[in-house]
Amino acid sequence: MAMDPAPGEPSADLQAASELLRALAAPVRLGIVRELAGGGRPVHELVEALGVSQPLVSQHLRLLRGARIVTAHRRSREIEYTLTDEHVAHIVLDAIRHAGEA
After folding, report:
1. So what's the pLDDT on residue 5?
2. Which of 45, 54, 82, 98 could cross-link with 40 by S-S, CB 3.0 to 4.6 Å?
């Protein structure tokens, strides 16, 4: 049973949504999620698709993993990253489409 928030405090679901959006609030992270919406990818493919450095992609992947937005699975010599939840892809793709309409 969920407890009611203290007066002036956001509910737990609003707090969790805020943390999710904060974790996504960088162009590189949005790009990573957009790329992973099509399926799992290793780091070198994300680097190529996004046109940014491997250390930068790795740094953003670390943050996305910490936020439980992506997961990592070893495939032979590579680590493949996938989205933990497809709902995040919908949020990001809808936001990108919306921004393109403005």
Report:
1. 64
2. 82
